[in-house]
């Protein structure tokens, strides 16, 4: 059962990475700003000022967007593979689905704050806490064995 949970957590994380990659590949201004900021920082550390850092970023932002697009498709493919493995190794598809979703929400929050500087509201954290409570209840509940009722069997 543990490998199913691990696969579900990884699937949720990869889904969050894929969505962040999509946001990066479709939002050209953010990548261009990061490129300019990085070149400025690199130039200050090297005591070298590159006069046309904007033109370098104009050339670099297209390959960076394509790289993020490739990362999007790669992460989605690996995410679906891990989700299939999680479903195969888990005793309940509900456990796998809820675990993957919770992992995706939390990973999205951390990646959003790390990459984009987004902040989550208190209500969001209350909601994710309730989701985690549900995940714990699902994982702690023992699966019930199906009972065989001989009274319900029909003789044809």
UniProtKB/TrEMBL annotation:
Chain segments annotated as transmembrane: 62-84, 122-139
Superkingdom, natural source: Eukaryota
Keyword tags:
Membrane, Signal, Transmembrane, Transmembrane helix
Q: Which InterPro entries match?
A: EmrE-like, TMEM42
Q: Which residues form the signal peptide?
A: 1-19
Q: What name does UniProt use for this protein?
A: Transmembrane protein 42
Q: Which source organism does the UniProt entry give?
A: Knipowitschia caucasica (Caucasian dwarf goby)
């Amino acid at each position: 059962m543990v490998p199913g949970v691990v696969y579900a957590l990884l699937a949720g994380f990869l889904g969050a990475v894929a969505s962040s990659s999509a946001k990066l590949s479709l939002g050209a201004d953010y990548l261009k700003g990061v490129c300019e900021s990085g070149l400025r920082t690199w130039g200050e550390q090297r005591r070298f000022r590159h006069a046309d850092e904007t033109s370098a970023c104009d050339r670099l932002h297209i390959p960076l967007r394509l790289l993020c697009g490739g990362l999007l498709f790669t992460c989605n493919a690996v995410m679906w593979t891990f989700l299939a493995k999680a479903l195969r190794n888990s005793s309940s598809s509900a456990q796998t689905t809820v675990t993957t979703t919770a992992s995706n929400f939390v990973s999205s929050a951390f990646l959003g704050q790390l990459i984009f500087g987004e902040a989550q509201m208190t209500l969001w954290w209350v909601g994710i806490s309730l989701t985690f409570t549900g995940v714990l209840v699902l994982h702690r509940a023992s699966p019930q064995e199906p009972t065989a009722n001989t009274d319900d069997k029909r003789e044809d």
